[in-house]
Amino acid sequence: MKSFAPVAIAIVVLASLQVLTSGSQYFVYLSLLVGVNVVLAVSLNVINGMTGQFSIGHAGFMAVGAFSSALMSQTLNEYRLGFLPEAVEHQLFFVISLVVGGVLAGGFGFLVGLPSLRLRGDYLAIVTLGFGEIILVVVRNTPTLGGALGLSGTPQHTSFFMVWFTVFIVVLFARRLLASPHGRNLVAIREDEVAAEAMGVDTTSYKVRSFVVSSFFAGVAGGLFSHFQSIITPGDSFSFVKSMEIVVMIVAGGLGSTTGAVVAAVVLTLLPEAMRALFITIGGDNASLAQSIDQLRKPIFGVLLVVMMLTRPQGLFGTHEIWDLLKRKKGAAS
Amino acid sequence: MSEPLLHARKVSIRFGGLKALSEFDLEIHKGDLKGLIGPNGAGKTTAFNVLTGVYLPSEGEIFVGGQKVNGRRPHQINRLGLARTFQNIRLFKQLTVLDNVRIAVLADRTPLFDRPRVEALRRGNGPSRALGSVMDALDNYRDWWRALLRTPAYLREEEGIEQRARELLEVMGLSHRVDELAKNLPYGEQRRLEISRALGTRPRVLLLDEPAAGMNTREKADLMVLIRELRSRFELGILVIEHDMKLVMGICEHLTVLDHGETISRGEPAAVRADPKVIEAYLGEAPAHG
Ligand SMILES: Nc1ncnc2c1ncn2[C@@H]1O[C@H](COP(=O)(O)OP(=O)(O)OP(=O)(O)O)[C@@H](O)[C@H]1O
Ligand SMILES: [Mg+2]
């Protein structure tokens, strides 16, 4: 079937890349970070960009996926199926854990999406924010999830292939969703909710569903994340700061643009890393400068956002995709 | 006489102390072309909003296609065959002309479960409501898979949607604009796009809120002819709000006149025009715009 061709190509390309890059641990680590952020940004874009709602609690859904899939994985790891090679078995367990994390996050997305039936704008934002914080409080007070100290001992199953295959799936999904009647209805809600209702669009159900799908992918991203961290703590990686980071990514990329979200997520994840590398080069082994980059990250993101809003409020690509802009350039030249 | 497609009985609505519409009666049958007129602030748009479910009526009953719709949501009422346009144009501005109509053209897809049954279950309470919601959700989530996998049925459906949207745009004389963004259309064309979009939902009754506003005299006359054509072509009942008395006189077979929410006169255009109450209401305000 034609619709599966891109999937086959992606698998081949990603598998070869995995083999090619396996030599450089640093590169692989970076690519995992970048990939997870791309999944987060592209999925949040479904709520904030396509549907025009405003969620600032995406890290909360990521946390749900991260902790639940880590726990799932640790439990599964005690079992052996026997008839499969161990590596295959690990990946199978990993996929199951990811799906569990995603589904659980999707369930929370449903619960958080329900208020969006009644709330709009700022009020909905506050609900999502509150949700993100509540999740962390719950984790901190649940010994099974590691409490405040964090959860360690999660099998390190995440690979370049798994992360980027998820990236591929989420991007494909976002693109095909947008091109479908379903996606058009989401955009209609963003453009004019009253008119969308009047044209027969069940706006409430669409809004809730965009929360569900978006949270599902955030949960999967969380699962990918927890399987390459030696320990996950209910702190910075899942806090409000993380949520805002994702919001900055999609705003910078242009709300509603999937490729914009991808580009912004890649650039904004690599930027601090690049600066760290730069400072190490300048400062030599005296790496205090390099360490301070972690503190500098927040102000840098803030300044970036302000500059962006002042100079290009519609984001890098607006609601367009990268190829729309290329096409237009070409059209203008000829 | 057959049952009216749209029927309002003694419908009233209050906004705080203001009674914006009182004891409003209306019947629209297939093939009707009726007018709703009245000075500024008379309650015409409010009447549309109540009929289409944007506001809940304080009193009275509304039936669409024989079903009572008090308290139903606008999209449900639309599904029963009632579509509208807006006085202050509400297009999906950032989308193309084609997409605007495609959103309204709902797929003739085969649902997983019998729709009326699901709807009936959802209107019930307790377990039956829950069951109805689950069935509805299953049906809806199926859309994702179909979109992601691009199943042949899905692709056929998309083709059908596009074809129908293009047909409607052709009828409304917008074929040359399909790929343009709605916001870039001139005013008159935006109004016609709103009508195409409303037609996309396959209505049986069409409510037009000042469809000719902002057009020049020639455009207005053309539009009125077009509206009459739509009625026969799509076998519609149509209700038009229009500020300009002369214009509605020309095409409508029946008029309802509102003033301060009250129906002050109704009947054949000639009789309405001669009604002293109507003359007074219209003389009482500055000359109608247009
Ligand atoms: N949501 C609302 N809340 C309070 N008052 C309202 C609301 N909607 C309309 N009104 C009031 O109801 C009255 C009728 O308004 P409506 O818009 O229906 O008039 P109209 O006949 O359509 O006038 P126009 O010719 O100017 O469009 C006005 O006094 C208006 O201020
Ligand atoms: Mg009005």
Provide a descriptive summary of the structure in words.
The complex is a heterodimer of chains A (334) and B (290). Chain A has a two-stranded antiparallel sheet with strand order 1-2. The mean pLDDT of chain A is 85. The longest helix of chain A is centred in the N-terminal third of the chain and has 28 residues. Chain A is globular, with a radius of gyration of 20 Å. Chain A has a single domain, classed as ABC transporter involved in vitamin B12 uptake, BtuC (Orthogonal Bundle). Chain A is an all-alpha fold and 334 residues long. The C terminus of chain B is likely disordered. In chain B, a hairpin with a 2-residue loop joins strand 1 and strand 2. Chain B is 43% helix and 20% strand. In chain B, the strands form two sheets. A six-stranded mixed sheet of chain B has the order 6-7-8-3-9-10, with helices on both faces. Chain B is of the alpha/beta class. Chain B starts with 5 loop residues before the first strand and ends in a 7-residue tail after the last helix. At the A-B interface, helix 6, helix 7, helix 8 and helix 9 of A face helix 2, helix 3, helix 5, helix 6 and helix 7 of B.
